[in-house]
Amino acid sequence: MNLELILFIVLALIAAVSAVMVITQSHPVMSAIFLILNFFALAGLYLLLNAQFIAVVQVIVYAGAIMVLFLFVLMLLNTSSEFKVLTDKKFIKFFALLISAFVFVQLAYLIFFTKPSNAVKGNLNVSSQIGTIQNIGKELYTNYIIPFEAAGFLLLAATIGALILAKKKFE
Amino acid sequence: MNITEIIVVSLIKIVLVIVMILVAVIFLVYFERRISAWIQYRIGPNRVGWKGILQTTADVMKLLLKEDIVPSASNKTLHTLAPIIALFVAFSTYAVIPFGPDVTIFGYQVKLMVADVNIGVLYVLALTSLGVYGITFAGYSSGSKYSLLGGIRSSAQMISYEVSMGFSVAGVLLLSESLNPQKIVLAQSGWMWNAILQPIGFITFVVSAFAETNRLPFDLPEAEPELVGGYHTEYSSMKFAGFFLAEYANMIIASAMITTLYLGGWQIPYIDKLGLGVTLTTLLQVGAFFLKVIFLLFFFIWVRWSIPRFRYDQLMSLGWKVMFPLSIINIIWVACLIMIFNL
């Protein structure tokens, strides 16, 4: 076993266990904390794939900003534990099982019956350079400039929309 | 170097850095109290050891021997986890700060930083954005309204100032064309310090650094007249010491970051023209780095005892309506500099 495989197994285990903990915890703040742990494990997995930039952005944006806002709201609302409104209804349980089975079959099909992608068979040096911030920046500002600008424009529109909604009176 | 040598060298560097920070914090707390006394025309601690130099050690001993009180309304796990997170974030950030140029010791080429990471600056930003969790968890888990208010204030404050901090750093990245701290330092050779080329970005970064470290005038998470002790109201003994240590360690990291990004890091302008030997030059450069950091630490303390605390709405409007536009103006300024002078 090489170091990479050991790291992968450890990180994947943390990610899977924490993902399960997110939905089994009854307290919303504890769920949020396990979600943060899950983000960290994912960032580690990205690092193993030589995607340094994605890994750090994962931590900065998801763990550092979005989850802080989540926690912020949860703490202000101070919900003690979840309400058991939906769990005792039969048909909801049935649909939950149906949907999870569907997703499971899809994933199982993808994993076992399709060919693995053969993108990273070329030069190891080249493939290890793909995830660096220089390459991502170059691609974003040359080949993908229009989607990039469109995404930026959408985000700006969303920000302005949120500002208007947050204002109490329209002047 | 093979893998064992890399691990041994890294371990030595990690231990050295941790010991250095712990010693620095001990002296920093002592000097903070002495300087505050000097500013306020008092004497300050002067009994334990020569001129009171062992005062901090005595305080630490006192804290360690105290009873560790955990409130019955608290969430025990999070209550213990919070100071650990704060300490972890404070210490692990030092990994990417270069103390000096590459040196050769006993035939080994050694870098004077724990980890030479390509995305060093982003690594620091990611970790500082995690620093908020220590304070937020502390505020939430204590089960006290003062702590909760402190924690919530801190998360809002840190998120707001992180934005202008990130935009100020973007100006530095434009000039140095790298996220590697060592390359950013090398790009500032001679008098091309970023503090001189982009003064607006320097000011916004310093102000944001004050806000991120929760120092006066931005110490609203622990404002004692309003919140008793803020997020650490319900903490005592070792755990309180943990927060205390983390705050001062954060102050050192902020100073080291300002030095690296804006004040030329370990560089002394035109020292190679003097024709000193390699060893002497390196020693002087490492000394210069520490001198710059010490000066910034003095500046932190000086500001703390000179400027009163902001009101909360003033803090937010300063962050969003002054610092954020200024940091964007700085990016435009740097872009114009690059376009006109081909820097």
What would you say this structure looks like, in words?
The complex is a heterodimer of chains A (171) and B (343). By secondary structure, chain A is mostly helical. Among the domains of chain A are: 1-78, NADH-ubiquinone/plastoquinone oxidoreductase chain 6, subunit NuoJ (Four Helix Bundle (Hemerythrin (Met), subunit A)), CATH 1.20.120; 132-171. Helices cover 76% and strands 0% of the residues of chain A. Chain A has 7 helices and no strands. Chain A is globular, with a radius of gyration of 21 Å. The model of chain A has no long low-confidence stretch (mean pLDDT 82). By secondary structure, chain B is an all-alpha fold. Chain B has one domain (71-231, 248-341). In chain B, 67% of the residues lie in helices and 2% in strands. Chain B contains 12 helices and 2 strands, in the order H-H-H-E-E-H-H-H-H-H-H-H-H-H. Chain B has helices at residues 3-39, 55-65, 76-92, 120-141, 145-176, 181-187, 194-197, 199-212, 224-227, 237-262, 278-304, 312-341, and strands at residues 103-105, 108-110. In chain B, strands 1-2 form a two-stranded antiparallel ribbon. In chain B, strand 1 and strand 2 (108-110) form a beta hairpin. In chain B, helix 3 packs parallel to helix 10 (237-262) and helix 8 runs antiparallel to helix 12. The mean pLDDT of chain B is 83.
